[in-house]
């Protein structure tokens, strides 16, 4: 039995289109090799604090967070927790 070529993933204009596709399609027929794991976090009743910083510092923080596959917020929160001994 020969392996058939996988279909490319379609593009969706709305979340509803994507949800309908996932509900109805046989995903084993599609090429999922370009997908990457995503770490999702849920917002809770946390407080918010804004801070201004030099752009270059923010770019470096963003690079470091991306290398760990986490958001900038998660990366900064991890740094703060480690510094406070809550890690």
Report the count of strand segments.
Answer: 0
Q: Radius of gyration, rounded? A: 19 Å
Average predicted confidence as pLDDT: 87
What's the helical proportion of residues?
Answer: 40-55%
Given as residue ranges, the uncertain stretches (5+ residues, pLDDT < 50) are: none
Structural class: mainly alpha
How far apart the termini lie comes to: 52 Å
Characterize the biggest β-sheet: none
Shape, please? elongated
Question: How many helices in DSSP terms?
Answer: 3
User: Which H/E pattern describes the elements?
Assistant: HHH
Question: Describe it for me?
Answer:
The protein has helices at 15-24, 55-67, 72-84. It contains three helices and no strands. The protein is 41% helix and 0% strand. The mean pLDDT is 87. It folds into two domains: 1-35, no CATH class; 40-87. Helix 2 crosses helix 3 (72-84). It is mostly helical and 87 residues long.
Lay out the secondary structure:
Elements: H1 15-24, H2 55-67, H3 72-84
Helix pairs in contact: 2-3
Characterize this entry briefly:
The protein has 87 residues and is mostly helical.
List the main descriptive attributes of the protein structure presented here.
0% strand, 2 domains, 87 residues, mainly alpha
